[in-house]
Protein: Extensin
Amino acid sequence: MRRQPLSTGPTTETGRLPRLLLLAAALAAAPAMAAPDNPPVPLPKPPLADRAPAVGPPVPAEKPKERQAPAAPEPEKKEREPAEPPPPPPPPIETEDKAAFDACTAELTALGAAFRTLPRIDDGEGCGIDKPVAMTRLSAEVAIEPEVTARCETLLQLARMTRDLVEPAARLGLPDMGRLKAVHQASGYVCRKRNGADTGKISEHARGNAVDISALEFEKGPVPMKIVASEDSDLAAAFQRALNAAACLYFTTVLSPGSDDAHRDHMHLDVMKRTGGYRYCR
Structure:
């Protein structure tokens, strides 16, 4: 048996028609209202850079970095050379014993020497003579030229050597030259270093202990102090060699001509005191 649908009320075709017409009219009018003829064009979005930043807490400005001064270049490290020790101070001027000095001048007078005493010499740096003597004659017969200043002991030894050695040897070795008239000296007292150097020990000349002989003056002319070879056999060479050797009996230091470059043309004589009475002769 077929069931009939339940009716909700009386429905007629005339009641449904007006509602359908209203619905159709509304649907037809909707597109015209939704899409106008000239719809507005949307503006493009601004780029991110032009957008206003988001509001937030202020960010502190970055402090400028302090400029650092360039580091000073390190000095080159040099190897330190060991410092040379300072030279020892020069010895003080030797004080002359009065009794010995008086005995020395008395003997010079007995030899006939011409001399005079001078005031004390002190030139500093160890140079000087406590009781200097200036001499012009070694004896009544023999002069010393030019005048020489030295200690009395130095001049007395030269006077003795002249009397006891030079004059007798000259009569034998240089018989044709006549009598000895003078001894030519090249240096007596002078304040300087040894051999005229800029450094080193002071010379014995600076203490009045030395005298240099450059020539002997005879009646017939001068005889210079010169270098002689050991094989030279003439009398003049024998005379020079005799002086070179025998001078060491009177002086503690003898540097004969040619003994070194500083003594090529003269004879150096001094009375330097050495331990044990040692003498240096060449």
